[in-house]
Input
Amino acid sequence: MGLKVENLSKSFWRKDVGNIPVLEEVSFELKDGEFACVLGPSGCGKSTLLNIVGGLVKPDKGSVCVDGSCVSEPSPERVIIFQEPTLFPWMTVLENVLFALKTKPIKKPDKQDIAISFLRKVHLGKFINAHPHELSAGMKQRVAIARALAMEPKILLMDEPLSLVDDQTRFMLHYEIQQIFKETKKTVLFVTSSVEEAVCLADRLFVFSARPGKILFEQKIGFSHPRRETDPQLIFLQDRISTILEKEFEKTAKEEMDIEYVLTKSGVLVPFDRNLGSNI
Amino acid sequence: MVLGKFAEGFISGEYLLSLKTSLLRIGIGYSLAILLGIFLGVAMGLVKFLDEGISGILLGLQSMGHAAWVPFAVLFFGENELAVIFIVQISAMIVVTMNTESGIKFVSPQLINQARISGIKGISLFREVILPAAVPSIITGMRLGWAFSWRGLVTAEILVSGLGVGHILMRAKEQKDMAYVLATMLLIASISIIVDNLIFKNLENGVRRRWGITKQS
Output
């Protein structure tokens, strides 16, 4: 049982460039309680994959099944945390969380207790009556996380949730996320473009190629949670994965800039015609 | 002199009497405009073919001045209250409709997706997400509609009916009493501004405060 993704393909059509394939034959399976990261260069279809699993986007080919039944529309069983915290601006923090619980068959006072307890879990107990605009980006994202957890989904889908948050908050949230998932044992699909983040959080890591996105390889990471970004073992792993990703990055860059670019040893891209022999 | 006439108008009771008539007309006409305008705007925002069909027509109607409705209204309703109320209504309705429609159409798809993830759909999605998200735009439409309905009212009262503030303007013109004309114009503008400040500004500020768009001083 768990999440089963089979042969997913998706392409988008744009007037000026024609058909753009973004996902190609992506297949993987997650067992209950596994924390999986999808790592890849930007524009490789990671978010599209997540939106398909979430039921917001229909795939061209392939299927997504949860516990045997296939996904066709969004449901509170598969909650997405978006890159930007989408809170309803006219509701308070607490109302935002309660709104997400609206369709749950729970009594009202219980919903209130659940909402408050999850907001406490992300250290926002003092801000339950604030409106979203009064919070910082990191706090808003924490509300979004609390809201997602309060919905008790089977699968949690996270779409680069921490990319807009400052470094300190991000490290803190990495730690908190690991703590929370140790307690709640949710199945998580976490999309990121940061190797550091992926290595720090994932039990299983799917590394994606540049567009069209497909799984290059899978890396299992067995270290116990909670991990710290600065753990030497993790840094070693990071370095190995980064080297592979750099090649992919080069591919994307060449495609975007349309000129012959080469990657120097230090990882800097330089145009081909500006190379005066420094690499000899 | 203008202020003197202004005071005189109040003391003689003429202003109060005609204000009573005018405010009743505008009250009815404007309320109808809001009800119909919001209803039509919502329908257009949600149903695409309605939008494509009606929005062109509305723009065409809007480009006609309020005075252009007078012949139609008089022939259709006769020279009576209904004609005036109709002109007030039609003057305000179009701008309310258009603002409501654009508010509904431009609700962030992210918010709608978020709600769908929470299992909210159908009427509930509309009532609790789409409509509140469109409120700022609807309020703008109501404010504009309020100003437009005054323009419609004054036009109608000058051209159609024998009562109301517009008619005072007309009579003052016939008596070549410039001070009285200016005083009455002052009256019309101030009533419109007072109501706007009392009701709509507060409404708008309330929404802005909740959404966090107010400037911090």
Observations:
- Chain B has a mean pLDDT of 85.
